Target: N-acetyltransferase domain-containing protein
Amino acid sequence: MKRRDYEGPGDLRTMQDLTGRLWSPESRWHIGDLAWSRFQHVGREPEWPTSLWEHDGQVVAWAWAQRPGTLDLRLDPAYPELAEEILRWFDGAVEGLERDVTLLESETDLAEVLRRDGYRAQESGVFFTHMRLDLDALPESKVPADHTLRAVRGEQDAEARAAVHRAAFSLPGLPPSRVTGESYRQVMRAWPYRAELDWLVEAPDGTPVAFCLVWLDEEHRAALLEPVGTDPEYRRLGLASAATLAALHAARRLGARSAFVAPRGDDGHPMARKTYESLGFRGFARTMTFVR
Model:
């Protein structure tokens, strides 16, 4: 067994390879999660110690720390002994005393390792609900007559695409979004991004005001929504739902049979979850955060 530090985008592909190999409809991670999370911002690599574990030339685990003390990981269940080693690596990769690790509630073996290491499950606070939708019977996508629904045309749309993302996710009381035109171009160059799965709704003046990006795992015919949003000035018009349905129709034409999304499940921000439920998504698991 060999551990090595993350060295760049080529290693992200190996992390995605492991994620795809282990994927099931009950998985927390999708190959699109990694691409979006790694590339949506520019200049954050120093904040993200990341390591990969290999056996016979194949990656069997990855761990991604985010300073000051957050850990995400994916571990091939054939190598359970690596869980303790990953936690020791995590302790050395970050500073301070506080640590947190988020799992799906179904990852009971990893949860037990965390408990043995002094972690305790949070009883309240933020959690995310993982939801699934069969794409066999999608309703049609509709927008108000004076709005335009279209797919992104490529990097020429990066600045506008980033601007509507910032509008949607720069909310009162929260840190402003750090997505820029430069970082969105990174996303567009990442595998498996496809412009035909990145949809916008434009206001009558041509300004993008809602969006949905879908990532397609072709092998498993599984589409992931990440991210979806609406400019606050244009909410409650059904625009995010329209963009989502358009993106899902495009994904189905490319072979997708099911779609997944993970909105907030707690009562802090319930509207996204309710929007997905109105489209037919149903929850199948929730996240649990363990702290030490």
Remarks:
- Residues 2-124 form a domain with the Aminopeptidase fold (CATH 3.40.630.30).
- The radius of gyration is 19 Å.
